[in-house]
Amino acid sequence: MALNKNDLKQIRAVVKEELDDQFDNQKEVILEEIDGKLTNLRSDLFEKIDPILTEVTTAREERPLIENRIEALEDIHPEGKHILAS
Known about the structure:
This protein is mainly α. Helices cover about 85% and strands about 0% of the residues. The protein has a domain at about 50-75.
């Protein structure tokens, strides 16, 4: 019994469907692996950046206090000399 065009179309359709299913399954596995690696990368990045951002925040909060102290010292030490030393 010879295959006709209809038989070949059906075979192609079945093969294409199988290949598509396999591709979809592999694609899902690959995407899950990539997602896991990106999640780990983000986690590592945040763990390393967090202490630096904490220092920056602390420095920003301390800056006005330091500036006020310097201004107060400059008021009592004009031109680098103590007011009472004149």
